[in-house]
Amino acid sequence: MSAHKQVIMNTFKIIGMKHPEVLKQYKPQIEKMTSDVQFKDSANSILDFIEGRSLAIVTEQVDANTEQLGIVTNDLAETKDNVARIDETVQQHSEDIKDLNTEVTLQREELEVVKAELAEAMIDIERIDRKTVDTTPTWSHDVAKLLDPESNTDWRLLAKRLSYSNDDLKAWAAHHSPCMSMLVEWFATHNSSEATRAVYIVLKDMGRDDAATVVADAMKAAGELVPVDEPLDLKHPPSVFISYQWGVQEKAVILKEYLTNAGFSCWLDIVSRILISCLK
After folding, report:
1. Which of 54, 187, 214, 265 has a beta carbon 3.0–4.6 Å from 239's, enabling a disulfide?
2. Span 12-44, pLDDT tens digits
3. How far apart are alpha carbons 77 and 18 in whole angstroms?
4. Rounded to two decimals, what is the model's pTM?
5. What DSSP element (H or E) covers 214?
């Protein structure tokens, strides 16, 4: 605001130098400006023009003010250039925003397509799940809940006893319920009643009476006979005797645990070695 006032005052001085009579009607306002420290000198110079005093001094001041006015004019021109550059930048940003909006619109359209494809896929999955439920007994989910938690007698041992390979176990381990995935495969490839009897016998052999009870209750409810100490005609791994040196006993124990979890029947002579050590 002060810069604009200064420009006005300088303009008044130029007018007063050539046509002081024009400014006489503004004399009261100009006199008020003498109380302002910033414009005091300019106001007095204009009053000198109006009153016809110190023309030479006034002329010098007009020249100085004219120079100042030129500086202000240059600053104004530079400001206009800056504003023009800002306008150009804003225009560029507006174009970039339009391009971004276009890209967002395309991505939304692609997302809608993906959602539609996903919806179709979910329908197919649900259809497959219904088929899966139809091929597995109702007790499968309860048994899966018991055998999914990791232990020495979890679903992996059941799978091994049912003669599945390590590759099968690795594939099922990535599923939400590995045991359920294994049971789905088991009942899809075996007769339902025979498959149920086989699972029951293996669970009893594993010492998982909790899961075996679930299967037995389901068999009783269906009017089927629950096997009692009935041998299971499945391919069992051979029995393993582990012979080792005294210095690697800890490794031998780990090996026995690993083989047992894999379905092998192992014998490891630890007690006799302890007795021999005590006798020494």
Report:
1. 265
2. 778 777 777 877 787 788 788 778 777 777 778
3. 27
4. 0.40
5. helix 209-221
